[in-house]
Amino acid sequence: MTDPAATILPSLSSALADMVARTKSAIVSVRSHRSRASGFIWKPGLIVTADEALADEGEVSVKLADGTAGPASIAGRDHTTDIALLRFDTGNTAPAVLSSAVPDLGALSVVVAAEHGAPTAALGVVSLVGSRWRSLRGGEIDARIELDVRLRPNHEGGLSLNASGEAIGMAVRGVRRILVIPSVTIDRVAGRLETHGRIARGYLGVGLQPVELDDGIGAMVMSVDKSGPSAAAGIRQGDVIVGWNDQKLSSVRELIRALGPDSVGSVVDVALRRAGEPLRIKLTIGERAPA
Questions:
Q1: Does the pLDDT at position 223 exceed 80?
Q2: Could you give the CA distance from residue 199 to residue 195 in angstroms, rounded to a whole number?
Q3: Distance (Å, whole) CA 192 – CA 268
Q4: In the chain, how many H helices and how many E strands?
Q5: Helix (H, G, I), strand (E, B) or coil at 281
Q6: In this predicted structure, what is the pLDDT of residue 1?
Q7: Residue 87 — φ and ψ, nearest 5°?
Q8: With contact defined as beta carbons under 8 Å apart, do 95 and 160 qualify?
Q9: CA-CA distances (angstroms) from residue 7 to 4, 11, 14, 128, 273?
Q10: Topology, domain 1-196
Q11: DSSP letter at 65?
Q12: What burial letters (b/e) apply to 143-163, b meaning 16+ CB within 10 Å?
């Protein structure tokens, strides 16, 4: 009787190797000040890498799979979604083809990354799949995808492939877990970085401190930017924000997370308490100045 493993395992091994072979030419090594990471060619002349793995200062260099190496410039970076965009002459190397597919729970995934320009691969399992979520820094991620896989720090920024060989996103190191930034998120954020060099963020122009109230949580205004949106709306130091568009405030972090790119220019109804008395104010969210 033929052992099924004698045919299944070699076939699986060959299929995985073919997947890596089709993708590895688009994978690059990224080096910045005291930091190494991976990345991939998103478009000709443009490379996506993990923002968290990119140093805040100093030069950035890139090494392609064919050995081509040199300095790269930062086209833009978004701390909230962990996406950075680099400009580098990628020659005739074909970009990675991203898929909007969301993997099934328990499906296999191969993370293809690079180390000193040489491709690497790691096999894992999709351990969690969820809906759209916001990062701790307020970035909107289009799907929650977690991997049970070993990912070294310098492999962060590599591509996660599904069992069909489709690139479903970028593998990054989260808090005690490995996350995949979905392809849809990458295309949305990298597209804005390519065009504008940054991601617009909402701005209130106030410094806030959480306070406990008898009936919930509030955000006390500790300082007011005299030229900011809150000052223009009439908000004063000492006011306590208790609601936002008819919703009770649950935390200051929730308020900050609401200040995403789509919030700029929108008018919100802010519920306040001033000297203990209720007050409602219309406020037009501004745009935070580039750092």
A1: yes
A2: 10
A3: 25
A4: 4, 22
A5: strand
A6: 52
A7: -105, 130
A8: no
A9: 6, 6, 11, 30, 71
A10: Thrombin, subunit H (2.40.10)
A11: T
A12: bebbbebebeebbbbbbbbbb
Fold held by 202-287? Pdz3 Domain (2.30.42)
- Shortest CA distance to 230 belongs to which of 247, 208, 209, 251? 208
CA dihedral 138, 60, 118, 101 (to 10 degrees): 30
What DSSP string runs through 206-259? EEEEEEEETTEEEEEEEEE-TTSHHHHHT--TT-EEEEETTEE---HHHHHHT-
What are the tokens at 117?
Answer: 């320009």
| Residue 157, Ramachandran bin (φ over 0: left; ψ between -120 and 50: alpha; else beta) | left
Domain ranges (residues) in the chain: 1-196, 202-287
Cα–Cα dist 127/149, whole Å: 9
Both tokens of 29, joined, read 């090594």
Give the length of the chain.
Answer: 291
Give the distance, in angstroms, between the CA of residue 185 and the centroid of all CA atoms in the same chain: 7
Contact indicator for 221, 254 with CB cutoff of 8 Å:
no
Q: Is the dihedral of CA 81, 82, 87, 93 positive or negative?
A: negative
Residue 2: predicted pLDDT: 61
Q: How far is CA 157 from the centre of its chain?
A: 11
- The pTM is what? 0.81
pLDDT digits (tens, 9 = 90+) for 26-51: 999 999 988 999 999 999 999 999 99
